[in-house]
Amino acid sequence: MAPVSSLLHPPLFSLSPPPPPSAKCKLPSKVHTVHSYSPIPHETRMGRDGSYTHRRQRSAVLRSALDGIYVVEPPSSSPYEEGKTESIASLKLKLLSVVSGLNRGLAASEDDQQKADAAAKDLEAAGGLVDLSKDIDRLQGRWKLIYSSAFSSRTLGGSRPGPPTGRLLPITLGQVFQRIDVLSKDFDNIVELELGAPWPLQPVELTATLAHKFELVGTAKIKITFEKTTVKTTGNLSQLPPLEVPRIPDALRPPSNTGSGEFEVTYLDADTRVTRGDRSELRVFVLS
């Protein structure tokens, strides 16, 4: 039977006996240590016939030119986990490719919506259930909206009532963001708009911030409650102070505009988030 030390390849320590006292040992006058990372580690496997084979692994190696010691880091994940990660990455790329060029959904046809929905479902299935009760911190940040299925209705309200958008209308939709603070429970929808003006006046650029508070309902559902809307001019009129839009009294609000809403986070990783709204609205965000 092979000794235990032969199973460690390469060896972590030298077990050779020390030189006799009479031997002269000359130490280098100056020591230079060079550390480099190279993806060339390998592992030892014993075959059925008792022989040993070596194969390369995907991990980093720390190599010292002074003593020749190799420290091999263990693989970060199993082949199954690596394959699953690659599958999720490819599905995410497919979804982002489908929704790109759709102007956040304003230019999406019915066929485009079906393709986006199918790609999102594939990614949601591969990613598994989202548990925000454990990973609520992953919501933190400023998220950029790259697709909303409700924008195909050509209104800023999506599936809810809102001002229309279009080339012949004075309102042009810019970028849309969600700013989430998990500590203060702030949930702000930020919309960049451009209001047309008759010649020779310049268009008015502004940013509308719809402030909400949010709470976690269950493991993946979020409920938001509207608080206020603030409008701030940008561009040439950026020196003007922000204006808070008066809130419509609850008694005068239509049933479709209750000031609150719910949506479910169906996929979440370090830079991408997919949600399903309470009116079957699909939204795709990337961390900005």
Could you describe the 3D structure shown?
- With about 290 residues, the chain is of the alpha+beta class.
- It has 2 domains: about 1-10 and about 30-75, no CATH class; about 80-285, Lipocalin (Beta Barrel), CATH 2.40.128.280.
- Helix content is about 15%, strand content about 35%.
- The strands form 3 sheets. It has an 8-stranded antiparallel beta barrel. A 3-stranded antiparallel β-sheet has the order 1-4-5, with no helix packed on it.
- Helix 1 runs antiparallel to helix 2.
- The longest helix has 21 residues, at about 80-100.
- Mean pLDDT is about 75; it is low at about 1-15, about 25-45 and about 55-75.
Strand numbers in spatial order across the main sheet: 6-7-8-9-10-12-13-14
Q: Which secondary-structure class do the elements indicate?
A: alpha+beta
Distance between the termini: 59 Å
**Unreliable segments of 5+ consecutive residues:** 1-16, 27-44, 54-75
Q: For the CA atoms, what is the radius of gyration?
A: 29 Å
SSE arrangement, N to C: EEEEEHHHEEEEEEEEE
Give the overall pLDDT as a whole number.
75
Our count of domains comes out at 2
What portion of residues belong to β-strands?
25-35%
Helix content: 10-25%
Largest sheet entry: 8 strands, antiparallel, barrel
**Quick one: overall form?**
globular
CATH class designation of the largest domain? Mainly Beta
CATH topology heading of the largest domain: Lipocalin
E-strand count: 14
Tally of separate helices: 3
Name of the CATH architecture of the largest domain: Beta Barrel
Concise summary:
The protein has 288 residues and is an alpha+beta fold. It has helices at 79-99, 110-127, 132-135, and strands spanning 35-37, 42-46, 52-56, 61-64, 70-72, 141-148, 171-181, 186-195, 204-217, 221-233, 243-245, 260-268, 272-277, 282-287.
